[in-house]
Design brief:
The protein has two helices and 14 strands. The protein is mainly beta and 223 residues long. The longest helix is centred in the first third of the chain and has 6 residues. Belongs to the CAPAB/TerDEXZ family.
C-alpha cells in the first residue's frame, strides 16, 4: 500500500518499513489536479450541467541536478518546424518543449493542456537505476501556463497530487495538496524531489509555492 506523505516527509523509494521492495528500473512520477468548479459545483451541479469548468494549462517540469545541486547542461537553442525558437532544448530541464533527456533515461510523456480526465494529468518517467551518477537529484515543479495573465493560481486548484509508481505498477508514495487561501496568487509549485542517498533513492514531499508562472525564474537557484 502506498504511503501518503505529509509536507517535508522523506521516504526510501526502494523499500518501505514493511519490507516491501520496489523496482526502480523505471519509475513514473505522476502529477494530477482538479480545478475548483465555479457556480453550481458539487456532484449534482456537475450532473445537471450547472458547473462551469475552466481550462487550466498546468505543466510538469523536471530539473536534473548534479551533486552540487546545479543544472550542468542548460541545453541549446532550437528552431522548430513552426519557425519558433525554443530554448533549453536537450538540456537537463525536462519540459513541454524538451520532453526527452538526451540520455533517454527521463522523459515527459505529453503536454496535457486542459487537466481533463481522471488519474495522472502529466507524467515524467525516469529510469532511476540507469541514471548516470552525475545526476544526484531531480526536482519536480508544476507551473500554470500564463497563470498571471489569466488570474489562475493554486488557490483555485484542488485534489492536486504527486505520486511515484514503480515499474511493476505499484504505487510507492503519494503526496496530496489541496488549494486554499495560502496558495492564492501562487502560480507554480515545487511538489517534490528525488535524490540519491546511501546507494538508493529517496523521495521528499516539498509543496513549496511560488508566485511566478514562469518556471525559468525558478532556475536561478540551480545555476
Amino acid at each position: 500500500m502506498a504511503i501518503n506523505l505529509t509536507k517535508g516527509q522523506t521516504i526510501d523509494l526502494r523499500k518501505n518499513d514493511k519490507g516491501e521492495t520496489f523496482d526502480l528500473s523505471q519509475v513514473t512520477i505522476g502529477l494530477g489536479w482538479d480545478v475548483r468548479q465555479k457556480g453550481g459545483g458539487g456532484f449534482l451541479g456537475k450532473l445537471f450541467g450547472g458547473a462551469q469548468e475552466e481550462e487550466y494549462d498546468l505543466d510538469a517540469i523536471g530539473f536534473l541536478l548534479n551533486e552540487q545541486g546545479k543544472i550542468a547542461n542548460m541545453g541549446r537553442q532550437f528552431t522548430n518546424s513552426n519557425g519558433r525558437q525554443v530554448n533549453m532544448y536537450e538540456g537537463d530541464v525536462i519540459y513541454f518543449n524538451s520532453m526527452r533527456h538526451p540520455s533517454g533515461h527521463i522523459w515527459l510523456t505529453g503536454d496535457n493542456r486542459t487537466g481533463a480526465g481522471d488519474g495522472d494529468d502529466e507524467q515524467i518517467i525516469v529510469k532511476l537505476d540507469s541514471l548516470a551518477p552525475t545526476f544526484d537529484r531531480i526536482v519536480f515543479v508544476v507551473s500554470i501556463y500564463q497563470g498571471r495573465k489569466n488570474n489562475q493560481h493554486f488557490g483555485m486548484i484542488e485534489n492536486a497530487f504527486i505520486r511515484a509508481v514503480d515499474r511493476s505498477g505499484k504505487e510507492i508514495a503519494r503526496f496530496s495538496l489541496s488549494g486554499d487561501a495560502t496558495f492564492n496568487g501562487m502560480c507554480s509549485m515545487t511538489f517534490a524531489e528525488v535524490y540519491r542517498k546511501d546507494g538508493t533513492w529517496k523521495f521528499r514531499a516539498l509543496g513549496e509555492p511560488h508566485p511566478t508562472d514562469n518556471f525559468v525564474e525558478l532556475l536561478g537557484k540551480y545555476r
